[in-house]
Specification:
The protein is of the alpha/beta class. The protein has ten helices and eight strands. The chain is globular, with a radius of gyration of 17 Å. 47% of the residues are buried.
């Protein structure tokens, strides 16, 4: 099987002392590409260096809603170098109303600036969204989605919401939560987004699958693949092939 981890954070401090073994284990698990996403401007150079060091690593640049600040109001000027440094997407960007700081109006402003840049240059986006899907849809209605599309990562919304976002041009990635206790909402959503709009992710070092140790690692994507297979009642090989093709299409990856 060939797998693509569509969303992880290899820049995380937890991996600094063991990144070689993390990558080796991922490759041995069948992961042919890992898409690592920065969460703040200070990580962009680290993301680029990981890509240059490991053939299996691609990277994206953006500012996550948890880390936006007033200094990011010039974010479009910084993103203009995305192509020059080799970033394949804009992300992780998004909206989060589960937190009180940074303030939501600042999150939304910085998100829309980054989304507008992605639309302007037609780069796919990786979106984080918690408790702000109505506002996400409002932003998309104002600005649009790049023609290349993008993903809502760690998707936890309903099947009905997924159908709305599919019409806007988005796909969805899921990982460790697939191994959590049975959820009709999650199962219904997965059945809507599979096969054409579903990607696998690890989101490592976050959201570890059930019965795995922290920090989460990319190779744990095999546990999420197994869980998806059980929910969909489709063999793992077929899901691996489908999700890999979806990731290749969105991100323009050659393997």
């Amino acid at each position: 099987m060939k797998l693509i981890d569509s969303h992880c954070h290899l820049e995380a401090d937890e991996f600094d002392s063991c990144i070689d073994s993390i990558i080796d284990n991922a490759v041995n698990a069948g992961i042919v590409k890992l898409i690592t996403s920065s969460v703040e401007y200070s990580q962009w150079e680290k993301s680029k260096n990981l890509h240059e060091r490991f053939n299996s690593v691609e990277f994206t640049i953006g500012v996550h809603p948890w880390y936006v600040s007033e200094t990011d109001r010039d974010i479009k000027d910084k993103l203009i170098n995305a192509d020059n440094i080799g970033a394949i997407a804009i992300g992780e960007i998004g909206l989060d109303k589960k937190i009180q700081s940074p303030p939501f109006d600042l999150q939304q402003n910085i998100f829309e600036l980054q989304l507008q840049y992605a639309v302007d240059v037609n780069k796919p986006v990786i979106i984080h969204c918690r408790r702000a899907f109505n506002e996400l849809i409002e932003s998309i209605n104002r600005i649009g989605i790049p023609k290349k599309g993008g993903i809502v990562h760690a998707y936890s919304g309903s099947a009905e919401l997924a159908e709305i976002l599919i019409k806007k041009g988005l796909s969805f990635s899921m990982g460790g939560t697939l191994t959590y206790r049975n959820s009709k909402k999650r199962s219904d959503a997965l059945k809507v987004i599979y096969p054409d709009y579903f990607l696998l992710e690890s989101d490592s070092p976050d959201i570890p699958p059930v019965n795995s140790v922290k920090p989460n690692v990319p190779s744990n994507i095999l546990l999420s693949l197994k869980a998806a297979s059980e929910i969909l009642m489709i063999d793992q090989e077929s899901i691996a092939e489908t999700t890999t093709e979806n990731a290749k299409k969105i991100f323009g990856i050659n393997i």
